[in-house]
Structure formats: C-alpha cells, structure tokens
Design brief:
single chain, mainly alpha, ABC transporter involved in vitamin B12 uptake, BtuC, 2% strand
Length: 325
C-alpha cells in the first residue's frame, strides 16, 4: 500500500514537472522572440507600443478564451467569427435603428451570443451533430443574419459611451486591456476551481468515463458553447466600439487566430489539456510576430507566410516536448 502511494506521488510530480517545462518553453519562446525583435527595432518594447498591441489584439484574445473552453471538451467552434460579426451588427442595430439607450446594444449583443451558443451547443449535445459540422453550419447562419440585418450600408458613428468600451482610457490603460485582464483572472480561476470548469477537462479527456462518473455531459457541452458565444459577443462589442463601425465581414479574419492561439498555448484539439494561461501566451506569440514584422518593415505579402511557419513550428516543438518529457 505504501509502495503504491509512493508511485502515485512520483507520477504526480512527473506530470507537474512536465506541465512546468511546457509552460516555461512557451514563455521562453515568447521572451526570445521579443528580444530578437527589440534588437532589430528598439521601439518594440516601448510602453506605448506594448499597450497599443494589447488594445488592438484584445478582441482576438477574448475570442480565443471561448475557443479554449470548447477545445477542452474535445470540440471546435468554426462559427465564432460570424458570431462576432452578427453580435456587433445587432449592437449597431440597437444604436442606430432604435431609440433605446446605448446600453441596450450591449444587452442585445450579449443575448445574441448566448442564443447562438445555446443553438450550437444543442445541435452538438442533443442532436449529436459533429462539432465541425454544426459550427460550420452556424457560421453560414451568422453570415446570413449579418447581411440581412445590416443591409447594404454599415452601421457607424456610435454614441461616445459605447465607443468608450473600445477606445476609452481608464487610469492610463485602455479599457479593452482592463477587460482582457479581468477575463484572464476570472476564467483562470473558473477552470481551476469550479465544478463546471473541471468538467470541461473531464469530458475532453474521456466523455464516457465522465458520463459514468455522474457528469451531465449534455449540459456541460451546452455551457462550453454558450461561453464561446458570450466571448464572441464581448469581442464584437469591443471591436465595434474601437472601429466605430460594423460590417458583415468584420469577424471573419479572427477565426483562424482564435483556433491557433489555444493550440499554440498547449490546448489539445482532442480535449482534456490546456488552459487560459497557455492561450494568452499562444495569442501573444502570434501578436508579437505580427507587430514585430510591421515595425521591422516586412511586406504584408510575406507576413501571413511567416505567421503560418511560426504556428507550425510552435505546435511541432510543443508536441516534441510532450513526447520526450
């Protein structure tokens, strides 16, 4: 009995060391990359540049949090970009086509995100459609709704109170950065200490064992996609406030980065592994590369190629460390 306990403790220490090594490898890569860019252009580490990078990248990172929840359960949300679009358009509709106070735009946008996540989660957990099929279908539903509501001309010129969510400054820090910081803390605690957060991991690791242990798999999957919809709507609100306009294609560009960020941060696409901290590091790797290339003066024609190579290399190195550590 004592020997068995000793072996279990040794195995737990090995797993903890492995997680620590993986975490340091990603953070180390981010620091080395930042150092290299700074050597080529010292403006990179200036506070104004770093704050601006975080401000402009906040919507992408917030979307990545929603994708992380879904991936932890072993799923994927291909509709997240169109949810950003349609929820921001709904916000624009409330602001421009109704006489309601500006905060009804936020309520309507969040409500649309919740409804979208509920429908998507129901298609997957109740009707049993594969996540890729259900979310791809919802992607086109979102696109169609966005065009139907928005019409031929975009919504723009929003009230100052709404624009403050994307452009405002609080204590010298942009409001989107404050929002991002709060969500990082909140969801890190959520995944670590709440039953629902731990259930995401359990379902992703082994859905049959999770069901046998009494976890309500349907309800848990439903919550994962609802949270993804909420994160997409928050990202859409911030983006609409910063741009002071919305259009039917504004969210499409964020889909692939929202998928790549959790994967680069160590979230397994088969579920059961990952977390918010890794997603933040993975997103920062992509953002730092893009910002660094702009500062260095690399042509936009080459930037997508470089980012693609960085994503592939990061995931490959991560898989090698997992295999041999």
């Amino acid at each position: 009995m004592t020997e068995k306990t000793s072996n279990t403790a040794s195995e737990a220490k090995k797993i903890d060391f492995k997680k620590l090594l993986l975490g340091f490898s990603r953070v180390g890569a981010l620091l080395l990359l930042s150092l290299g860019i700074t050597m080529m252009n010292p403006n990179f580490l200036k506070p104004t540049n770093l704050i601006n990078v975080l401000r402009t990248s906040a919507p992408q990172m917030i979307m990545s949090f929603g994708m992380t929840f879904v991936m932890l359960t072993g799923g994927i949300d291909l509709s997240i970009g169109s949810v950003v679009t349609v929820t921001s358009i709904i916000a624009g509709f409330f602001l421009e086509d109704t006489n309601l106070p500006w905060y009804f735009a936020i309520i309507g946008s969040l409500g649309a995100g919740i409804i979208s996540g509920f429908i998507t989660g129901s298609l997957i957990s109740v009707i049993k459609l594969p996540p890729a099929v259900a979310t791809y279908g919802m992607l086109w539903v979102g696109k169609g709704l966005g065009f139907a509501i928005n019409g031929a001309s975009p919504y723009y010129n929003f009230p100052d109170q709404f624009r403050y969510l994307g452009r405002g400054i609080l204590l010298g820090i942009p409001v989107p950065v404050w929002t991002l910081a709060v969500l990082i803390i909140l969801f890190s605690l959520f995944l670590r200490y709440t039953i629902l957060g731990r259930n995401f991991y359990a379902i992703g690791s082994n859905p049959h064992a999770a069901r046998a242990s009494g976890i309500n798999v349907r309800r848990t999957l439903l919550w994962a996609y609802i949270l993804s919809g909420i994160m997409a709507s928050i990202a859409g609100i911030i983006l609409a406030g910063r741009l002071d306009a919305v259009d039917p294609d504004m969210g499409a560009q964020f889909l692939l980065p929202a998928i790549a960020s959790p994967v680069m941060g160590g979230t397994s696409m088969t579920g059961g592994q990952g977390g918010i901290g890794g997603t933040v590091v993975g997103a920062l790797l992509m953002i730092v590369v893009a910002n660094g290339m702009n500062l260095i003066g690399i042509s936009s024609l080459w930037q997508q190629l470089v980012i693609g190579v960085v994503v592939i290399m990061a995931v490959w190195i991560d898989s090698k460390i997992r295999k041999y550590s």
